[in-house]
């Protein structure tokens, strides 16, 4: 696969008119040079860059692609609504239908509110929790990602201490630490954020214990504070219900995004009856939050979730891919760690402090037409076929073979931005 000459041109043009040339989580600044920044189109499980190179995509736009890019049913629903209007002076009937359908699918939910991004939904959850009993303190597990607003952004440049004055941190999957955070709050806990499993960059993913999930629910009940599950990444990838339903835990609020419109921009806050008055009392809005086309797409997406085997097919493909990669790594004598649910995999290499192995392997795969990620959890869509998995494994096998040959002379990581991020992660907070 040839180098991305058109992509290089676009990056140069972008640097003239966009600060840093690119920003946010989709920046490839920390990725190997073989990764394109810009894409011309997408279909099913595939992406094409501006040089015409095709990639089997295992990032799914960092999550939103659940059923396949340009899924026919979703596109038809969106286009049908577009014929009548999108962003209007008020919402369409699709908003009511979407709320009815969504609430009917999620066991803890009695109402729904819609917005655009994950950060919108988690911030709305925070404000609702504070309005519930007019309290201030929000408890958040250290290092967990809940969006990019001032109160939760992982980057501190431009953020003040006052932005986080009422955030109290505790250790994930540690009930004693959570209890201590409640004690520090001294009766002023508004809400507690929880991710269904730990899925941070550069670190192995892991599922919390049932004791932790049940214990957080109990602590919130004792304090009459709201338990908030952040389903932005995990929603409908682990379950057709709230992810902690496997533990018998019902949150008071849950934040959803990414997959809700299968790529159309929409996110949501769901809530239990006890939080309805609080949600009604806050002021939250956005000019495009009520647009009809994404809501029509979301109605169609939820229908596919309810009526098809999308999840079972996704898990089957993911488990086949995980097993194949494990076998290849073992055969090459290269130690890797595959963590998290198979449909949201993270692959890290042993003895790879500067990520030179992971960067080489994923960079080689990208050059050969498979888009994997060296340090962020990946996502599989229901559009990935057994043939796609077979093609992917042919590429990953070649990448392992080339890595094994290169290991004795593999140079240190030269990506300075990545090196700085890794150093920041190791430094005491």
Q: How would you explain this protein's 3D organization?
A:
Helix 5 (175-185) packs parallel to helix 6 and helix 9 packs parallel to helix 11. Helices cover 39% and strands 13% of the residues. The two termini are 42 Å apart. By secondary structure, it is α/β, with parallel strands linked by helices. The strands form three sheets. A seven-stranded mixed sheet has the order 4-10-9-8-7-5-6, sandwiched between helices. The protein has a four-stranded mixed sheet with strand order 1-2-3-13. The protein has twelve helices and 13 strands. The protein has two domains: 5-60 and 309-426, Alpha-Beta Complex (Aspartate Aminotransferase, domain 1), CATH 3.90.1150; 72-307, Aspartate Aminotransferase, domain 2 (3-Layer(aba) Sandwich).
């Amino acid at each position: 696969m040839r180098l991305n000459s058109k992509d290089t041109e676009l990056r140069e043009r972008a640097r003239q008119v966009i600060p840093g040339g690119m920003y946010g989580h989709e920046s490839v600044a920390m990725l190997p040079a073989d990764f394109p920044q810009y894409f011309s189109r997408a279909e099913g499980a595939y992406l094409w860059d501006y040089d015409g190179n095709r990639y089997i995509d295992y990032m799914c736009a960092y999550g939103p692609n659940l059923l396949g890019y340009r899924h026919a049913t979703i596109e038809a629903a969106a286009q049908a609504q577009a014929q009548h209007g999108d962003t209007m002076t008020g919402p369409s009937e699709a908003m009511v239908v979407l709320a009815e359908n969504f609430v009917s699918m999620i066991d803890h939910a009695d109402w729904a509110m819609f917005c655009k991004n994950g950060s919108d939904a988690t911030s709305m959850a925070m404000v609702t929790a504070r309005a519930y009993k007019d309290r201030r303190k929000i408890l958040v597990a250290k290092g967990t990602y809940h969006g990019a607003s001032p109160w939760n952004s992982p980057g501190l440049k431009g953020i003040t201490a006052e932005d986080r004055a009422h955030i109290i941190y505790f250790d994930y999957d540690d009930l004693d630490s959570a209890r201590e955070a409640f004690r520090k709050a001294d009766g002023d806990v508004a809400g507690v954020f929880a991710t269904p499993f730990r899925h941070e960059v550069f670190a192995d993913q892991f599922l919390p214990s049932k004791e932790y999930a049940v214990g957080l629910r109990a602590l919130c009940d004792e304090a009459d504070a709201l338990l908030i599950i952040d389903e932005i990444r995990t929603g409908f990838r682990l379950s057709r219900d709230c992810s902690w339903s496997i533990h018998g835990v019902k949150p008071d609020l849950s934040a959803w995004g990414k997959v809700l419109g299968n790529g159309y921009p929409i996110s949501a806050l769901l809530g239990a009856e006890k939080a309805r008055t609080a949600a009604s009392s806050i002021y939250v809005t956005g000019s495009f939050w009520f647009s009809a086309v994404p809501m029509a797409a979301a109605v169609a997406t939820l229908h596919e979730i309810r009526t098809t085997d999308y999840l079972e097919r996704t898990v089957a493909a993911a488990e086949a891919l995980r097993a194949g990669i494990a076998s290849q790594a073992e055969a090459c004598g290269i130690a890797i760690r595959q963590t998290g649910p198979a449909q949201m995999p993270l692959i890290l290499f042993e003895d790879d402090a500067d990520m030179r192995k992971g960067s080489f392997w994923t960079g080689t795969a990208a050059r050969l037409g498979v888009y994997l990620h060296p340090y962020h959890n990946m996502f599989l869509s229901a559009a990935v076929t057994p043939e796609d998995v077979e093609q992917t494994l042919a590429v990953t096998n070649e990448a392992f073979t080339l890595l094994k040959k290169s290991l004795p002379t593999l140079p240190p990581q030269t990506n300075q931005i990545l090196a700085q991020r890794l150093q920041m992660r190791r430094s005491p907070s």
